[in-house]
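Example 3.2
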Amino acid sequence: MAKHIAFLTLALFFATVSTSCTMHGTTTQSIEKEQQQLKALLKNETRNSGSRYAIVNQIANNMLTMHDYQSAILFLTDWVQKHPSDAYNSYWLLMTAYAYLSINAEPFAEYYFDRIFRQYPDLLVKGQSVHFLCLRNLIQISKVPSKRIKYFNEIINRFPSDVSTTELYLRRALEYEKDNDWEPALRSFALFLAQPDASTIQIAGEPNAYNEARQLVDFNNSSKDWTFETLESLERSVKSAIRNYDWRALDSYRAKINFFYMSWNQDATDPNSQQEFSMRLYMRGQPISYSDKLEMGTTPNEAYLRTRGWSQYAPVWYFYFRRVNFPIDQAIHSTWEWAGIYIGERL
């Protein structure tokens, strides 16, 4: 996706190249002749900045037309080095960065995008901010979470009307998460959830963004007093409560955040799968039993307790136990919780 976005922008900025070639029926030979003429004109130091811009731009575009990216890079970087006061240097370096993208040299492109952003004033070219284009490309190219966070912050603060801040709040939170910087991650998740379109936005690569962020933030804000240090202690406590028909104890063991009650075929994101109820409704006058051993899940982080006798219509319930994934708090992380109930025989 990074290259696709970059090349779209390249086409936008340098569309004059193909237009010029079509109009003049250019060939490689005619372009080379034009290059000689342009370079001769460029030697005239008395030309005003507008004239110099047109000449430098055409020389670079001719090189890009011929896919001579290395020559374009050398020409543009040499020009910037020799003319540090040129008002268009940020644009020349932008062309340089895109030339590097064209030859799949992303680390070099990243260097120039970042250099423009840090060292050069912003410039509007064809109505678009050079700094904005740099930030957008840096977000796509950079692999370092701390750098991506910096770029997200800049683009959110400086260009909020040009981006989906809802998506960027989420992506920034995920970068904080990768960097194990949990407090700002939670703040960014909360900002994401507070946006009016958070529950409906479609974010590439994050199909369950809203529900996962909601669960994390809600869990963080909860008491977390229902977790057990080990799976064995959770199993013993739940079995004891069932054996003694102690619905109050069962209610206290149940997760207070994101607890589900659903069939095996039901989607966990379905609002109807999360219901508030008391075990008291199902334990009165019912002969309830449970299996001696837990059934393990597809990973070591989950287990099931098969129980029976809850109702004549759906007598079998599987209690779902899972290991808590909450590295924000090491006292809670890797403890166990009773997270939900599956209705019916296990599929």
